[in-house]
Specification:
Blueprint lengths: L2 E3 L6 E3 L3 E2 L7 H9 L4 E3 L7 H8 L7 E6 L6 H15 L4 E6 L8 H13 L3 E7 L3 H9 L6 E7 L11 H7 L3 E5 L6 H5 L6 H9 L3 H10 L4 E3 L6 H8 L8 H10 L7 H16 L5
Parallel strand pairs: 3-4, 4-5, 5-6, 6-7, 7-8, 8-9, 9-10
Antiparallel strand pairs: 1-2
The protein binds NADP nicotinamide-adenine-dinucleotide phosphate (NAP).
The site of NADP nicotinamide-adenine-dinucleotide phosphate has 26 residues, from helix 10.
């Protein structure tokens, strides 16, 4: 498993981890991922998997990097501290390795949430702070809200078939040493990716390289310097396969074949602004995660 620095920190993370939203596997499946190098495990207070993750990794805690997230409804100082304590309890650990703001909350000043994160770091309850689903501008504001800690990561949807992150965010994060943690890196399931491959580029590459479709799709993502991926799999066979997406690189020709032949979605700036505006309205009426 190839490793990459987390932001500008000295911590090295595997370029393929394991996501647990909708995870229906067992503790053994989670430990298998760790044993095979996928030692970054991503969860969230809203996934309902923190307890399982905590139990599974207890025997190997020192080898696992646990990333969890606080939901936007808990971004006020008092709620954020309580949410962190609850996650620590469910995980059964004394610190969270990476604590992420799950989505922007437009009704709470970012300074309040980031200031609380600073205190959680100072108290030793959180090692690193990240965000998720933040635009480049939202990330810039979060960074400006602190001089004490660094925002080391932004977890966003990114795959061969959704390349919205390439609009602006990917470059911004590269320049500012922020790791992109690519979620839904298999497009939520391989049939989705295959449906966007009318010329069967994946089949061509599988014949040439003996790599599977999942490995090719993940390798295309992690070929970028500051990108790591967290595919979710509840199947041991798939977990092992996904770990095998690291440790090699597509040739430039193979990379451009995927780049050019797979159809992808890239939301426009206007589309993104509209979605954020809708979220802002929902949040101001108390309709939020
Ligand atoms: N921050 C956020 O807002 C956010 C939002 C969504 C997701 N996430 C995170 O990102 C993680 C992954 O995203 P996701 O669950 O949406 O989608 P995903 O990882 O793109 O796709 C998951 C699907 O792919 C299948 N799969 C995995 N490996 C496979 C393989 N080698 N061959 C064939 N099928 C394979 C899984 O089925 P099997 O289980 O059968 O293998 C599952 O149906 C989540 O679990 C979560 O941790 C974060």
């Amino acid at each position: 498993m190839q490793l990459k620095h987390l932001g500008s920190s000295s911590i090295l993370l595997p370029e393929v981890g394991l996501g647990t939203s909708g995870f229906t596997g067992t503790e053994d499946t989670l430990r298998l991922a760790v044993e095979n190098g996928a030692s970054l495990i991503d969860t969230a207070e809203i996934y309902g998997t923190e307890e399982l993750v905590g139990k599974a990794v207890r025997p190997v805690r020192d080898r696992v990097f646990i990333a969890t997230k606080v939901a936007p409804r808990n971004f006020r100082r008092r709620d954020l501290i309580a949410a962190a304590e609850n996650s620590l309890r469910r995980l059964g650990v004394n610190h969270i390795d990476l604590y992420q703001l799950h989505w922007p909350n437009y009704t709470v000043p970012i300074e309040e949430s980031i200031g609380t994160m600073e205190d959680l770091v100072a108290a030793g309850k959180v090692r690193f702070v990240g965000v998720s689903n933040f635009s480049a501008e939202e990330l810039r504001r979060a960074q400006s809200a602190t001089s004490k800690i660094r925002i080391v990561s932004n977890q966003v949807r990114y795959s061969l078939i959704d390349r919205t992150a390439e609009n602006e965010l990917l470059d911004y994060c590269r320049v500012h040493n922020v790791t992109i943690i690519a979620y839904s890196p298999l497009g939520k399931g391989l049939p989705e990716i295959r449906a966007c491959d009318p010329e069967k580029a994946l089949d061509q590459l599988t014949r040439r390289s003996q790599k599977t479709h999942a490995q090719l799709a993940l390798n295309w993502l992690i070929a970028k310097d500051n990108v790591i991926a967290i595919p979710r799999s509840s199947e041991k066979k798939h977990v092992l396969e996904n770990c095998g997406a690291s440790g090699w690189r597509l040739s430039p020709d193979e990379y451009s074949l995927l780049d050019s032949k797979i159809r992808f979605k890239q939301r426009s700036r206007t589309g993104l602004t509209l979605r954020r505006w809708k979220r802002r309205v929902d949040q101001s009426f108390g309709r939020q995660l």
